[in-house]
């Protein structure tokens, strides 16, 4: 819609990261409670996509003249690398300017990016060694579960761990016992049902 040499691109996406667990409302039900919509992708990015489409529709129906062309570009692979947009730009015009109504738009104006990290340990010590760690299903989502196996007795750290979690209101629990040559398996689960 609109006229002019320049193209304003509104970049949206309708794919989502895995749902995970511990939802208060079904992740794919689109439940409304207390005036809010709950569901996987409601904020990132289906809600903002529909809001942008409605805004474009209202501008067009109102007959407001635009000195730029405006195009809503909807991707289906943003959460996994945006291959769809790379393909789109192989075939279509690159916008002169653009924005992404993603997440809590219009407040967010930048994203942190994603880091994939690999940690290694040069020495093996018997006390406090991190033996294994697993967390989440994808690098670009807040994990609903984290598990660490450490080389220290559970009784030695349980109270300190729970005190730390309580002081930051993380809503996590410590479960474990001393077994396997004083190795302790620790499981941390978020108690917050909101995803």
Provide an overview of this structure:
This protein has helices spanning 42-62, 83-91, 154-167; strands at residues 7-13, 31-33, 36-38, 69-75, 97-99, 129-135, 145-151, 178-179, 183-189. It has 195 residues and is α/β, with parallel strands linked by helices. The protein has two domains: 7-99, 3-Layer(aba) Sandwich (Aminopeptidase); 129-189, Alpha-Beta Plaits (2-Layer Sandwich), CATH 3.30.70.360. A four-stranded antiparallel β-sheet has the order 6-7-9-8, with no helix packed on it. The chain has a three-stranded parallel β-sheet with strand order 4-1-5, covered by helices on one side. It has a two-stranded antiparallel ribbon with strand order 2-3. A hairpin with a 2-residue loop joins strand 2 and strand 3. The longest helix is centred in the N-terminal third of the chain and has 21 residues, at 42-62. The protein starts with 6 loop residues before the first strand and ends in a 6-residue tail after the last strand. Mean pLDDT is 79; it is low at 180-195.
């Amino acid at each position: 819609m609109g006229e002019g040499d320049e193209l304003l691109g509104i970049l949206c996406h309708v794919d989502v990261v895995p749902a995970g667990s511990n939802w208060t409302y079904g992740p794919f039900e689109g439940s409304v409670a207390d005036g809010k919509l709950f569901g996987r992708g409601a904020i990132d990015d289906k809600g903002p996509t529909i809001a942008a489409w409605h805004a474009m529709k209202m501008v067009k129906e109102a007959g407001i003249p635009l000195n730029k062309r405006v195009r809503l570009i909807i991707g289906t692979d943003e959460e996994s690398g945006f291959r769809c947009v790379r393909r789109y730009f192989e075939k279509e015009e690159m916008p002169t300017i653009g924005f992404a109504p993603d997440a809590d738009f219009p407040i967010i104006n930048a994203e942190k990016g994603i880091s994939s990290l690999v940690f290694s340990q040069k020495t093996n010590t018997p006390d406090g060694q991190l033996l294994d760690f697993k967390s989440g299903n994808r690098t670009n989502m807040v994990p609903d579960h984290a598990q660490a196996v450490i080389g220290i007795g559970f009784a030695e750290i349980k109270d300190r761990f729970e005190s730390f979690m309580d002081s930051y209101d993380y809503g996590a629990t410590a479960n474990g016992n001393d077994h396997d040559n004083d190795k302790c398996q620790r499981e941390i689960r978020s108690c917050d049902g909101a995803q």
